[in-house]
């Protein structure tokens, strides 16, 4: 039993270390995005601004990403249960917009999903999928993450 506990602790520490390494090249917390004025078209033909008026989760995904498919339900749950938090998903690295549309339809997403581009990817330093940024009302990064995140993990980051 002691051996299993040690293995679990070692695995957890390695996982945390690798997560930290992946996130080094992301935007740092306290980065102001005030100079970035992105307005994107959504999958329903409207536009959405990436300049939030309240705390917002920006979720960058690729429609072919299996981890994105696995974690998007957690983001939908956060959106449905927390009206004080906005959610905007931005699809990247797709060939045709229909790929993003199918992703949205498959997961029955009710928050805005926008078609991203290379300038968005570069500005937000998206290097892997999914990548999350929590942006506050002053358009400042307050939290970041890359990879799978649970519903509770997303909620805690947004506090």
Tell me the major beta sheet. 5 strands, mixed
Question: What is the strand tally?
Answer: 7
CATH architecture, by name, is 3-Layer(aba) Sandwich
Mean pLDDT, rounded to whole units? Answer: 89
Beta-strand residue percentage: 15-25%
Task: Quickly name the level 1 CATH class.
Answer: Alpha Beta
Which strand order does the major sheet show? 5-4-3-6-7
Query: Any idea what the shape is?
Result: globular
Name the CATH homologous superfamily: Glutaredoxin
Question: In CATH terms, what is the fold-level topology?
Answer: Glutaredoxin
- Intertermini distance: 36 Å
Q: What is the multimeric organization of the chains shown? A: single chain
Helix content: 25-40%
**What gyration radius follows from the Cα positions, in whole Å?**
16 Å
The total domain count is: 1
Give a written overview of the molecule:
The chain is α/β, with parallel strands linked by helices. The chain has one domain: Glutaredoxin. Helix content is 39%, strand content 20%. The strands form two sheets. It has a five-stranded mixed beta sheet with strand order 5-4-3-6-7. A two-stranded antiparallel sheet has the order 1-2. Helix 2 packs across helix 5. The longest helix has 22 residues. The chain is globular, with a radius of gyration of 16 Å.
Q: What is the element layout, followed by pairings?
A:
Layout: H1 2-23, E1 39-41, E2 47-49, E3 56-61, H2 66-81, E4 86-91, H3 97-107, E5 113-115, H4 118-123, E6 131-135, E7 141-146, H5 151-157
Helix pairs in contact: 2-5
């Amino acid at each position: 039993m002691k051996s299993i506990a040690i293995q679990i602790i070692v695995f957890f520490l390695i996982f945390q270390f690798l997560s930290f390494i992946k996130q080094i090249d992301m935007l740092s917390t306290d980065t102001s995005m005030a100079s970035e004025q992105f307005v994107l078209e959504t999958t329903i033909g409207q536009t959405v601004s990436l300049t939030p008026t309240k705390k917002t989760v920006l979720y960058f995904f690729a429609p072919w990403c299996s981890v994105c498919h696995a974690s998007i339900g957690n983001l939908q749950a956060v959106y449905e249960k927390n009206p004080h938090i906005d959610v905007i998903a931005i699809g990247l690295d797709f060939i045709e917009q229909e790929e993003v549309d199918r992703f949205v339809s498959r997961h029955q997403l009710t928050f805005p999903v926008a078609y991203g581009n290379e300038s968005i990817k570069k500005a937000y330093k998206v290097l892997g999928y999914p990548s999350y940024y929590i942006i506050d009302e002053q358009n400042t990064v307050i939290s970041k993450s890359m990879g799978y995140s649970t519903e509770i993990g997303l909620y805690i980051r947004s506090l």
